[in-house]
Inverse folding.
């Protein structure tokens, strides 16, 4: 069966940069809007504590299949009118191999809410993006997205071989498990999610099995995923090293350029002919966002492109408005630093993958301002599982306070240069935690190299542009105007 997938995918961007508002806008034009599922429980509890302006979260929760769970969440986190100025956000517990049921319920409701809002009131396609390297919240997040009838699941930063099988099991409301690597142990462990146990007060009905696209950096990996996954893979996103967020490390021994960034070479280039030979649709990502580049890759067999950076700096993005406008203004009016506005940092991310950061004034990618931050680990999404001396499994993050990491048996060199992306990315979307002593967490904007050329979208005299401008630029003004005409058929596979 030939499936009519959209040509343009608005890439998933965490944390909540591609939120439901951005995804909803894109999806209404007949293209694919992707929400981010990363840390989505933190996003929801903070939106509720900020008073849920517009009532969107409460509207979505009113449609949640378990009202017992929805009510519990509102009672615990919602603050009418928002937190008093300067009051820290109340924290939910951190995920573990076996997480508290209330946390799993919160995560299900959070991803449900994000997808439900993105899909509300139109028939366009909506997907969710997750990072493979983050294991513990994944199952509950996928289940919540499926409860909201998500059309696509896209997963990067790792090799998500087990996800197709999980989607199959969840479509029948069956218990699923996900392997979790454990540092220092010969074998990993498994985290489980069982809808029958977690979803109190809810009738379990069959769910649609979404399409699944892993993000790959080579045709070999794509072939491996096609052949060895636990179920059906429906297509691929092929992402190169110029994309925003995390990048796959270069092949072979990592070498750095004079600025300290990983050097990518010909071995990191992906052959489109090899991708086309796999017989599944694929989209190119990482500095492909021009009509000419899109046409070139389509001529070489790609179905289309996935675009991040241009959407991340559009009006509908979840990035804090002031940060976004300041960034655009600086780029348009200032000489860029040597090497451009983007730094690919091989050390900052606790995942160990290179992570792109902007080099804008005031950004914590400028080492000096970041070094003053007191380390704290209070969100914990990027913690790794490790084996304790007594054989049980603990959690540690190389960006947590160094003494804590060492106490947990971690090596000091692992902690060098690590940044708390969890807190920084929450600050990017205007929800910084207020730590002890009233200290606000710092932001760290990530973007792809395409940020250097953002000027091509910015309207004269406005200092900004919309997501529809991006679509119109890439696909022509007619596509951006098709808001009211029928969108591609929804995936109705059960
Ligand atoms: C702000 C930002 C955050 C991103 N976060 C994620 C993420 O959480 N997961 C992911 O798979 N890709 C992430 N990406 C990559 C995008 O989904 C997309 O593949 C990439 O940006 C495409 O390249 P472009 O930026 O040149 O358009 C992010 C990109 C940006 C700009």
């Amino acid at each position: 069966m030939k499936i009519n997938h959209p040509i343009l995918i608005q890439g998933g961007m965490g944390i909540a940069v591609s939120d439901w508002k951005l995804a909803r806008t894109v999806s209404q034009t007949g293209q694919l809007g992707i929400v981010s599922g990363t840390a989505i429980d933190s996003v929801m509890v903070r939106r509720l504590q900020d008073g849920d302006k517009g009532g969107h979260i409460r509207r979505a929760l009113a449609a949640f299949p378990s009202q017992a769970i929805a009510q519990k969440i509102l009672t615990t986190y919602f603050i009418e009118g928002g937190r008093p100025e300067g009051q820290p956000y109340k924290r939910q517990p951190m995920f573990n191999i076996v997480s508290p049921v209330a946390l799993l319920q919160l995560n299900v409701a959070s991803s449900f809410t994000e997808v439900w809002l993105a899909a509300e009131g139109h028939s366009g396609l909506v997907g969710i993006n997750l990072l493979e390297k983050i294991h513990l919240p994944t199952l509950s997040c996928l289940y919540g997205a499926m409860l909201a009838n998500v059309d696509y699941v896209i997963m990067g930063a790792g090799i998500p071989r087990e996800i197709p099988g999980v989607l199959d099991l969840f479509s029948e409301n069956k218990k699923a498990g996900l392997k979790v690597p454990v540092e220092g142990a010969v074998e990993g462990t498994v985290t489980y999610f069982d809808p029958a146990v977690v979803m109190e007060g809810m009738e379990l009905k069959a769910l649609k099995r979404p399409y699944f696209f892993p993000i790959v950096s080579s045709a070999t990996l794509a072939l491996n995923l096609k052949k060895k996954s636990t179920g059906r893979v429906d297509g691929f996103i092929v992402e190169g090293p110029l994309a925003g967020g995390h990048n796959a490390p270069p092949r072979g021994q990592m070498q750095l350029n004079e600025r300290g960034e990983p050097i990518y070479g010909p071995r990191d280039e992906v052959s489109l002919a090899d991708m086309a030979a796999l017989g599944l649709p694929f989209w190119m990502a990482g500095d492909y966002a021009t009509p000419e580049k899109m046409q070139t890759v389509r001529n070489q067999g790609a179905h289309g492109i996935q675009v991040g950076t241009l959407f991340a700096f559009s009006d509908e993005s979840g990035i804090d408005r002031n940060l976004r406008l300041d960034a655009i203004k600086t780029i348009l009016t200032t000489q860029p630093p040597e090497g451009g506005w983007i730094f690919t940092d091989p050390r900052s991310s606790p995942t160990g993958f290179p992570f792109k950061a902007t080099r804008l004034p005031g950004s914590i990618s400028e080492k000096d301002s970041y070094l003053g931050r007191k380390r704290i680990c209070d969100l914990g999404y990027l913690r790794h599982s490790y084996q304790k001396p007594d054989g049980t499994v603990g959690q540690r993050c190389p960006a947590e306070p160094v003494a804590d990491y060492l106490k947990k048996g971690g090596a000091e060199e692992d902690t060098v240069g690590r940044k708390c992306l969890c807190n920084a990315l929450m600050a990017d979307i205007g929800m910084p935690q207020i730590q002890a002593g009233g200290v606000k967490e710092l932001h760290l904007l990530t973007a792809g190299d395409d940020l250097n050329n953002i000027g091509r979208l910015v309207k004269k005299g406005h200092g900004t542009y919309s997501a529809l401008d991006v679509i119109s630029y890439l696909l022509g003004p007619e596509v951006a105007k098709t808001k009211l005409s029928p969108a591609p058929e929804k995936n109705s596979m059960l």
Remarks:
- Residues 484-494 have pLDDT under 50 and may be disordered.
